[in-house]
Amino acid sequence: DKALANATKEAGRLVAALSEPYPGIAASLAASVGIAILPQAGDTGESMLSSADQALYRAKNSGKNKAVLAG
Questions:
Q1: In the chain, what is the greatest distance between 2 CA atoms, to the nearest angstrom?
Q2: Which of 67, 47, 46, 49 shows the shortest CA–CA distance to 58?
Q3: Is the peptide bond before 21 cis (omega within 30 degrees of 0)?
Q4: pTM for the complete prediction?
Q5: Which of 1, 24, 35, 38 is most solvent-facing, going by the fewest CB within 10 Å?
Q6: Across 1-71, where does the E strand assignment appear?
Q7: Judging by DSSP bridges, how do beta strands 32-35 and 66-69 pair with one another?
Q8: Which residues partner with 56 through β-bridges?
């Protein structure tokens, strides 16, 4: 599915961009992203946010610096 491929690609780009070093800052960052796609992840705003949130925590629990698809 093209929407899924695009969402996954963009989430990966976001994780990579947020993980880059920031000039003048010694701290490192890790980014995690939860992806929710209509209609698989829900049919209301609330269900989509819940699905994305669950995917986000799966990403965090699997080592961070990841994008995980809801479902």
A1: 43
A2: 67
A3: no
A4: 0.80
A5: 24
A6: 32-35, 66-69
A7: parallel
A8: none
